[in-house]
Design goal:
By secondary structure, the protein is an alpha+beta fold. Helix content is about 50%, strand content about 10%. The chain is built from ten helices and five strands. Strands 2-3-1-4-5 form a five-stranded antiparallel beta sheet, with helices on one face. α3 packs across α5 and α8 packs across α9. About 20% of the residues are buried.
Length: about 230
Amino acid sequence: MEATLFTTLPPPSSTTISLKSHFHNPLLLHPTTLHHRKPTRTPLTIRCAISRTKKEETVETVKQQLEGCHLIAGINYKGFTVQQFQQLRTTFPDSTKLIVAKNTLVIKAIEGTPWEPLKPCMKGMNAWLFVHSEEIPAAIKPYRTFQKEKKLEENDFSGAVFEGKYYPPEEFKVLENLPTRAEVYAKLLGSLKGPATSVVGTLQAPARNLVMTLKAYVNKLEEEGGAGQ
């Protein structure tokens, strides 16, 4: 009798064998690897060096603006959009520069200078207006117009220094109403040509107006003297 041998094969597995589960491709990153991998960060020492360099550059920029400056004013720009700030820059004359700098850096730049009285307005977020012209009202007016058009009543001047004196926001009308160079010339020449009472009236004007008047007259005489040589 012949014996028939039966080989019992195991039932097919329901689990599909994947090559991916047996062979690791070094070019493929496992999801868990992506999840746990930490982002590359700049070393702390390098970040500190960059930050220190930027601060030094800002202080130097402010110091450069102090040269030949007649007035420095702070503007509270909290809430300004980038577009608003860009628009504001274009409204000022070429003799006026608008710079954003931290209060601490501005304090460092003005230490030991006639601009130290500016310190009381070193609060909040300030943009700094550097006026390199004697035409103070013309330098301030663009922001007043911009402030009114954009309805930025809360973004007022935070303070200013002019001729060594600090002006808080509530005293800015004094700066905005200073006479122009042309007005000073006209007033002085009118006084010199008129009766003595006119001259007396000019001399009895506020001291600051008188100083500006005499200064303008001296400059005019020097210019005329230089032209005559």
